[in-house]
Every structure is written in C-alpha cells, then in structure tokens.
Amino acid sequence: MITASEWQPEIGVKTTWSCPSNIALVKYWGKKEGGKQLPANPSISWSLSDLCATTEVEILPKSSERLIFTFDHAPKPAFEPKLLQFLDLVTPVCPWLNQVTLKVNSTNNFPHGTGIASSAAGLGALATCLVALESGLGKQTTVGVEAGGNTVDGAALHRPMDWKKVSYMSRLGSGSACRSMYGLPAVWGETSAVNGSSDQYAVELDFAIHPNLQGWEDCVLIVDAGEKSVSSTAGHALLKNHPYAEARFAQASENLTSIVEVFGNGDVKRFIEIVESEALQLHAMMQTSVPYYLLMRPNTLALIEKIWQYRESTGQAICFTLDAGANVHLLFDAKNKLDIMNFVDTALFNYCDNKRYLCSSLGGSPKEC
Ligand code: PMV
Asked: Could you tell me the strand order of the sheet in which 357-361 lies?
C-alpha cells in the first residue's frame, strides 16, 4: 500500500537526483483493462546506469502556475502537458503538491534525437526528487530561513527513501519508468515467480544474481534517431482487440518465470534465447495489430544478422534486444568487452545512423547529486 504523505512543504527547499533509463528483457506491451497504467503481463528490465536524466526540484510559494519547467535550463512547452498530468496523478499520494509551485529543471546525459526513450529516466528522476523532499532530504536554499531536511541534522530528520513509492509514482507517469529505481533486475507486474511483485510498482530481484549474469553491458546501436512513427501509448492500445494478445500475455508470463530462474542458475544460453525471442515478439505484435506497423529498419535486421554470425563464430555471450523502435541494444558480458567493442567498431558501426552508438553498464539506481 502506498500511503499519502503528511509532510508539510518548506519553501526554498531543493533536491537534485539522477535516474537511469532501463531496457526490458521481458517486455511490457499491453495494459490491463481498467485501472491506471497496469500491465497486462509482468516484465523485467535492467537499468542503463550510464544513460540518465538529472532533475532538480525546488519548492516555491504557490502561484498561479503549478509548475515552472525547463529542460537544459530553457523552456520546453512540449513536455509540460505530460508533467502537469503526472503531478495531478501523484497528488493523492503527495497532497503537499497542492500547496506549492514546483520549479523543475531536467537534463539528459545522452543526446536528444537518438531514439532512446527519455521518459523513463526523466519521470523516474522527478518522482525520486518528490519522495526525497518528503523524506526530509531536501536542502534549504533561502538565506534567513531555518534550514530543513538534512542540512541541520540529516540523521535525525530524514527518513529512508521509500523506493516502492518512487516506483509507484513513476508508473503513473510512464509504465516502464517504474523499473528504473533498482540496481538489480526489476520486475513489474504480479507474478508467482517473484515475492512481493505487484502491478502497482516494481521490485528488484531479492536474490544474488549468478556470476555469469553480472557485469553485463549494453551498447545501443543507433539505427534511426527520429521520432517513433507510433507512440507507445497508441501501441499499447492496439493490444485491446489484437488476435494474439492472450497468447502473448501468457508467453510473457512464462518467459518472466524462466528468466528469473536463469538469473539464479546462470544459464546464459537460455538467457539469450528468452531475450531475443522477447524482442522479436514485441515487434511481431506491432506487425500483426490492426492497423499494423513496422518499427524495424533494414539496418536493424542487418545488425541482428551480424550479431548472430558473431555469436556463432566466437561462442561469446552476446545477444540483442529491441525497444519500441529501430535501435538495436547489444547486450554482452563485459569480460569480452575488448573483442566486442572491436567487433562494433569494425563490423557494426557502419549500419548506425551517423555511425553513432551509446554504451552503458547494466544495473544502477537513482543517485543524489
Ligand atoms: O512505458 P511505455 O508506456 O512507454 O511503454 C514502453 C514499453 C516498451 O518499452 C516497449 C517495453 C518495456 O517493457 O519497456
């Protein structure tokens, strides 16, 4: 249960946090009927610790505006409707939001126009800041006002961060964002395979990951840096009357159970099989919805073929996954990093838009800045 905070906001208090993006291994695609942003099947993801949003939130006295938002310190009116909607959705659990105006600045450490979803990291960082403020972690910036939060006596005044609440709030903004809070693989959606799992928020796996699946990395091969032709909101909606929806939801639940086992037993071959099959199933659902659509590009397929050939010839632990777009996420065990980056730089980068790719370690959670 996520409870409403009784915190009384302090004007001038400010906090800054970074939050990673994430890549799903078993995909969330399709929402449950009724409820707000509840998944039709459980999903699991890894955070992309080097691809982050950093968000700064300051509490101002209430004015006619609920939110003063900048992106990279410049106005960004296009983002405001989604953020205002987010604030409305989280106010029942943060009623103090009714008493203030928020000044928010957000930045991403990855370039805009790379086809990497920034909403998971951005909404995750904003939700983290709000929960940090009500946990007493903010710092007073106004001269002459008695300092609040941990600037006086952190140990005495602040409460531990409620990461379930951060995840719950992030979910209301963007479903997949709720999995960005955890260092270990994060599961969102009720499943008997994971203790404490919920449709309301994500939880991290509660056991030690097998060494075979520790220290993995993701090299995001940028195939198409443009905007998606079909938004994920529209994509989820097309699952409603989809002829294969029920079979897909059942398959995703089975894959979730299997991959959780794999994280415990270190069966890399099975890991690769599940992850690649999930990527193709996600795109198969798009290609078989009504209306149908295609987000892969010729270079997406060329890269997949190259990755398969490389794996076949070297036997190295490497596979691909896809998000809702044309980019290819190359997942690999970092113990082979030198070889694999050499492979990227000789055989793959020519298929990338402007020869661009972005690398990140897998795992990682929000950090106070
Ligand atoms: O969070 P949304 O509504 O943008 O959905 C995105 C879903 C995928 O990224 C395609 C898959 C996933 O589980 O992250």
From this structure: 318-322, 328-333, 216-221, 357-361
Give dist(CA 19, CA 22) in Å, integer: 10
pLDDT, position 153 = 43
DSSP label of 363: B
Task: For residues 160 and 248, give the distance between their C-alpha atoms in angstroms, rounded to a whole number.
Answer: 39
What percent of the chain has a predicted confidence (pLDDT) above 70?
95
Task: Tell how far the Cα of 324 is from the centroid of ligand 1, in angstroms.
Answer: 7
pLDDT in tens, 105-122: 999 998 776 767 678 899
Q: Determine if residue 354 is left, alpha or beta; phi over 0 gives left, psi from -120 to 50 gives alpha, anything else beta.
A: left
Could you read off the pLDDT of 66-90 as tens digits, one per residue?
999 999 999 999 999 999 999 999 9
Q: Number of C-alpha atoms within 13 angstroms, CB side, residue 71?
A: 15
pLDDT digits (tens, 9 = 90+) for 179-188: 999 999 999 9
Give the DSSP H/E element, type plus range, for residue 349.
none
Q: Is the CB of 176 under 6 A from ligand 1?
A: yes
Q: Which of 122, 152, 120 is nearest to 137 (CA)?
A: 152
What integer is the mean pLDDT of 260-276?
98
Predicted local distance difference test score (pLDDT) of residue 44: 98
Closest residue to atom 4 of ligand 1, CA basis: 232
d(CA 339, CA 174): 36
Please, which residues have CB within 8 angstroms of residue 204's CB and are 6 or more apart in sequence? 182, 183, 184, 185, 186, 187
SS3 label, residue 323: coil
Q: What is the pLDDT of residue 144?
A: 57
Write down the pLDDT at residue 154.
44
Predicted confidence (pLDDT) at residue 157 exceeds the cutoff of 80: no
**What's the token pair of residue 211?**
């060494």
Cα-based distances in Å from 35 to 32, 92, 179, 211, 279: 7, 15, 19, 38, 26
Ligand 1: atom nearest CA of 43 is 13
Task: Report DSSP letters for 44-66, one per residue.
Answer: EEEEEEEEEEEEEEEEEE--S-S
CA of 232 to the centre of ligand 1 (A): 7
CA of 37 to the centre of ligand 1 (A): 11
